[in-house]
Amino acid sequence: MLRLVYGSCLAASLAAASLSCQAETTAQAMPETMQMLKTAIEIPTEEGKAQVPVLARYLAQQLESAGFAASDIQIIPIGETAALVARYHGKGHGKPILLSAHMDVVTARPADWVRDPFKLTEENGYLYGRGTADMKTSLVTLVETLMRLKREGFVPARDLILVASGDEETAMATTRELASRYHDAAFLLNGDSGGGVYGADGKPLAYEIQAAEKSYADFLLTVTSAGGHSSEPTPDNAIYNLATALKHIQGYAFPVESSSITRTSLKALGARTPGPLGEAMKQFAAHPDDAAAAATLSADRAYVGKIRTTCVATELNGGHALNALPQRATANINCRIFPGESIASVQATLTRVINDPKVSISIQPPTPVESPASPIPAKVMNAVAATLHQRFPGLEVIPGMDAGASDSMYFRRAGVPCFGVNPLFAKAGDSFAHGLNEKLLASEVPGALDFWHGVLTRLAR
């Protein structure tokens, strides 16, 4: 029945451009949204399965069904993956607004999960599945909103361009291609960064617009040795040497850092966070050199990345036979680098901390990049705040820095101001994005639809 209503709305807008269709409600959009999300979760867009193009074609079909011309939708194949671009034509008043999302997800092994990661499951008020939090819900609700606006007959003042990448979680080749093609834009809204924070009691604490993000770099540690028969062990063992290097990295903490963005964010969150953590936030915001406050924040997985560069081992490989001494051992060290700190300086620090000439350190491809912060203009801040205040009156909207990296870094490097406006709220550490049993509060789906509709109509008028 919803399809018939939507079809009538589209027909009316085509028949008489001067007459606009009645605006759809979020409740009306929910059945279609949940079906799209179910389908998106079931398409395993993890690396190596060549399924991102399948999802891109599915989303393209949905956009066409809502009135987008096929000529305004493009799928850009790159290797086994692809990017999706959809242009929503406006009146031509200024440069376009880019809408960024990604279609791929981190690999999930079904045997390790309690529920099938590639099946959308709702239990106890949560939606479970790979991509529910990162970031198929945000992607689907954004696509649904563009469809909804098209059916309503909305004409933006400037073009809106969806730029959905296909390998944000890995090589970011599609991201680089999109940034090279679509860098002449007013600004970019990224649904994969920023977002709202709930307290332990489930009440909203604040909403962050991502204005800066850490750089991302992978370093490969390599140790080689002569090898030999396992019955004749020697002190020069590649695996043991690598293990020692890894223990040195594990025991090292990069210096504490802060910026006006992170201090503003922690001050606002601290005022609404009870207990020692909230006190530490407020104290650190006022006195970034306070070692006790920094230690409390560093002990919390949700905030350790907000106050320093972090490096952690993520992959390990060594040896070539069960009965032979190892000739080679390697480990990947993933670093999230605080803005303003160079990648070269992090590599130099790792070399110093390991302090072993037997361990070589090289940068893994693709070549990492550093991206500048994006000061948030009043019109973006006001549009986000006005939209959120309809759901949470008086909620504070603040600039923030993401501890992770996103597609925005390549667009920022290309000169496009980028603002992370993830429509979802979550408790700190509750979503398990990239981890086992990823989940999202089911109540966030209608909230996301309201968010995108409100923000886009306010910014694009």
From TrEMBL:
Residues 1-23 form the signal peptide. Pfam families: M20_dimer, Peptidase_M20. InterPro entries: ArgE/DapE_CS, Bact_exopeptidase_dim_dom, Pept_M20A, Peptidase_M20, Peptidase_M20_dimer. GO terms for molecular function: carboxypeptidase activity; metal ion binding. Residues 212-358 form the Peptidase M20 dimerisation domain. Keywords: Hydrolase, Metal-binding, Protease, Signal, Zinc. GO terms for biological process: proteolysis involved in protein catabolic process. Belongs to the peptidase M20A family. This is Acetylornithine deacetylase/succinyldiaminopimelate desuccinylase-like deacylase. The lineage of its organism: Bacteria, Pseudomonadati, Pseudomonadota, Gammaproteobacteria, Lysobacterales.
